[in-house]
Design brief:
Blueprint lengths: L4 E4 L7 H7 L2 E2 L3 E3 L14 E3 L3 E4 L3 E4 L8 E5 L2 E2 L6 E10 L4 E9 L5 E10 L6 E10 L7 E7 L13 E9 L2 E8 L5 E10 L5 E4 L6 E7 L4 E12 L6 H10 L4 H19 L2 E3 L2 H16 L26 H14 L1 H13 L1 H10 L22 E3 L6 E3 L2 H4 L3 H16 L2 H22 L1 E3 L4 E3 L17 H24 L1 H10 L4 H13 L21 E2 L12 H5 L1 H5 L1 E2 L6 H7 L6 H11 L10 H13 L3 H12 L16 H15 L3 E3 L2 E3 L10 E8 L2 E8 L4
Parallel strand pairs: 25-26
Antiparallel strand pairs: 1-9, 2-3, 3-4, 5-6, 7-8, 7-13, 9-10, 10-11, 11-12, 12-19, 13-18, 14-15, 15-16, 16-19, 17-18, 20-29, 21-22, 23-24, 27-28, 29-30
The protein binds beta-D-glucopyranose.
The site of beta-D-glucopyranose has 12 residues, from helix 5.
Length: about 725
């Protein structure tokens, strides 16, 4: 098994869409699904650019699929070459994650009996994030008396949408020397996009024609048997959201004397540098080794190193699932990978939230609160974009979605990432200029969201949805209350820090956010008296008020099911039962790990682990559970959970990979290896490890960045 490559040697049209997701390439500026250049009936080709949203009904905005830059239309002796026609004699598709290069080779026989070998290779440049490059070649394999006529037409296909919804209209198109360009705009948000392309071939005897009216570039000529035509299609894309004028930028990019080879060379070097920092060496288990590399590849493909307005959607730029919206998946599940591997990207992810503070303030106002309430689903302006109504999974009838209103823990989750960023990088300037304002504004939100119960003399947070989304309208979710308390305490401590390190900034923030002494005392009060439901005898946290009184849920009758309990039974029956969608109390014990002892962790694990839907609840939580399992020395259980997470897309385990990569799960897989199996912890006196070895693992090695230093961890199993 080549652990740097994902490969398939047959083509099954039934897994067309899953394959498109798996073979996605990207660089954070754009992502392009692994569709075929020649097109295929029913395909969902997509190139998504971070930040390019357009309005839609119900989910408000979505990333707008741009005209397809891969498109090639090929005719040989008048016959249209497409894989749904003729016969596929051989097929091989390889994604080399080390070089971030996708290759495909097909031996194809047309209906007229002509046999061709088609090769294609593509990448999304990691060096120039605006550039995509495609090399396409075809060889006539068969013994024919005469040369064959080839027509190769490369264009931007405008007939692609988000599931049939077309977001773009053409503004203009034209040519400039050997380049063709297309200017489009989104129908509602009026983002301007210019895509330009150029074709290069070294094969002799082919003419090129730039088609400014029909659109694209046409190449035609004759090929002798045994000869190969190789064409490079170089593409550049800029939008009005980028600095500068899109058309001038896009044409300038191609005007530079760039060849496919030079672009590829630079791209490979950049990926090599990434892997030097990011690779995880995992000896003894090739399947996991391959899968973890694939997960890290996807994380990198979906994060922009150059844009501090960019975040990562739940499915990144790899598919239409969740409309390109950003959830807590980013801060809680993916963020730690960037924090320890590429802190600059981690910083960008936080700056995305910082820039959207005003939107979060509006959300708070709308719900009658102070401070900043980050949206459960976030897109371009920080306002809530969670759809309010969707077809229910069990019966397809319209069902209300309350997460936008009630899943408020996200504000504390973002604060948590801000704090960790500062702890791990020591980037004081960031904390002073941006982070502190986020911590204080979210604390302000919590202080107005918490209510005082004068009878019980405690603060409560009513009517929320916790990470376990199967229980709605719950009171005093332990996760939410504990994270809110943490947020308030941390905000107070950051004011102390500002006092010493940046008094002027403190003064400014205190004045602007109106944080007078009584406000701060109130924060202190809430933190000291926040209700955290826990049975002192058993150490068990009660997920929310009344959870322990709900009926037990018998999972026995559902053995062999293919979907989640909510999809099978509907929303209502789950409300009255103790069945949990995903890590909730256990997520809290994992995030605030220093606050809880091993006994508490163990007791809660024993209670919550068996009543969680690990198979179909949420793909986010399997790999994450592994961290706690390792802490409790349950190495085999941890391994199974990790496998479930790290293979969720490669094996389409949730049967929904067609909608895009589960990037939260990719991030959780990295955390499982580093914090779980290696047991890495940073303490004031250095770092410690505490390995938990799955059966076959023999060695685990990786790097992390800590306070600007590279830390190399290399663990070998003693008994091997
Ligand atoms: C999960 C959430 C997650 C969202 C996006 C939901 O199914 O329950 O925790 O944030 O998907 O991945």
């Amino acid at each position: 098994l080549n652990t740097w490559q994902i490969e398939e040697t047959t083509f099954d049209p039934k897994s067309l869409h899953v394959g498109e997701t798996i073979y996605t390439i990207g660089n954070g500026y754009f992502g392009t699904r692994g569709s075929f250049e020649e097109g295929y009936p029913g395909s969902t080709e997509a190139t998504l650019l971070w930040g390019v949203f357009d309005s839609v009904e119900i989910s408000k905005e979505e990333l707008a699929n741009v005209p397809d830059w891969l498109t090639v239309r090929l005719t040989v002796n008048g016959e249209h070459v497409r894989l749904d026609r003729g016969t596929i004699l051989e097929f091989r598709r390889t994604l080399d994650v080390q070089r971030a290069l996708l290759q495909r080779e097909v031996l194809w026989r047309g209906e007229n009996g002509l046999t061709l070998r088609l090769r294609s290779e593509r990448f999304a440049s990691l060096v120039n994030e605006h550039c995509g490059a495609l090399r396409y070649s075809l060889t006539v394999e068969q013994d024919l008396p005469e040369a064959v006529e080839i027509e190769f037409w490369a264009t931007f296909n405008q007939a692609v949408g988000n599931n049939n919804l077309l977001h773009w209209e053409m503004v203009d198109q034209g040519k400039e020397e050997a380049s063709f360009w297309l200017h489009s705009q989104t129908r509602h948000s009026f983002v301007q996009l210019v895509q330009s392309m150029r074709l290069n071939t070294t094969t002799e005897g082919f003419e090129q024609e730039v088609l400014d009216l029909a659109g694209g570039i046409r190449l035609y000529g004759r090929l002798q048997v045994g000869e190969t035509l190789t064409v490079d299609k170089l593409v550049s894309m800029y939008t009005s959201l980028d600095d500068g004028e899109p058309q001038a930028n896009a044409l300038k990019d191609l005007g530079l004397e760039r060849s496919y080879y030079t672009l590829l060379g630079q791209h490979e070097q950049a990926w090599q540098a990434f892997w030097q920092q990011a690779d995880i060496l995992l000896e003894g288990d090739d399947k996991s080794q391959q899968a973890i590399r694939y997960n890290l590849y996807q994380l990198r493909c979906n994060a922009s190193a150059h844009n501090s307005r960019a975040s990562i959607a739940a499915k990144g730029l790899t598919g239409f699932g969740y409309d390109g919206h950003v959830f807590y998946d980013t801060e809680i599940f993916m963020f730690p990978f960037f924090l320890y591997i590429q802190p600059l990207i981690a910083r960008n992810l936080l700056l995305y939230r910082y820039r959207l503070l005003d939107g979060a303030r509006k959300n708070a106002q709308l719900s009658g609160h102070k401070g900043a309430q980050y949206p459960w689903e976030s897109a371009s302006d920080g306002q809530e974009t969670t759809p309010t109504i969707v077809p229910q999974q069990n019966d397809g009838k319209p069902g209300l979605v309350l997460n936008g209103l009630l899943e408020v823990h996200i504000s504390a989750d973002i604060a948590f990432a801000v704090w960790n960023y500062w702890q791990v990088t020591g980037d004081d300037a960031f904390m002073r200029d941006s982070g502190a304002e986020m911590l204080l504004s979210t604390a302000l939100y919590w202080s107005s969201r918490a209510t005082y119960n004068s009878e019980q003399k405690r603060y409560e947070i009513q009517d929320v949805i916790g990470p376990d989304e199967w229980h709605i309208h719950v009171n005093n979710s332990v996760y939410t209350n504990a994270m809110a308390r943490w947020n308030l305490q941390t905000a107070l401590s950051i004011l102390d820090w500002l006092q010493n390190d940046a008094p002027a900034r403190r003064e400014e923030l205190v004045a602007r956010l109106d944080l007078n002494e009584s406000t701060l005392q109130h924060w202190q009060e809430i933190s000291s008296h926040m209700l955290i439901l826990q049975d002192q005898k058993t150490s068990l946290f009660e997920q929310f008020e009344g959870f322990f009184k709900l009926e037990p849920f018998d999972q026995g009758p559902y053995a062999g099911r293919y979907s989640s309990y909510q999809a099978l039974l509907g929303v209502d029956p789950l409300q009255t039962h103790q069945i949990v969608k995903q890590a909730d109390v256990l997520l809290l014990l994992t995030l605030l790990k220093e606050q809880f002892d091993l006994e508490t962790k163990s007791a809660n694990w024993q209670y919550y682990y068996p009543i969680t839907d690990h198979d179909y609840g949420s793909s986010l939580s399997s790999a994450l559970h592994a961290i706690l399992a390792c802490e409790l020395s349950l190495c085999d259980v941890a391994y199974d959970l990790f496998s479930e997470g790290v293979l969720v897309d490669l094996e389409n385990r949730d049967a929904d990979s067609a909608r895009g990569i589960h990037l939260g799960s990719c991030g959780a897989a990295w955390q499982a290896v580093v914090f779980g199996f290696a047991g890495l912890r940073f303490t004031p006196s250095g770092y410690t490890t505490h390995p938990c070895w799955p059966k076959d693992w023999k060695r685990l090695a990786f790097n992390v960045q800590h306070k600007g230093q590279n830390v190399h961890v290399d663990l070998r199993r003693e008994d091997t």
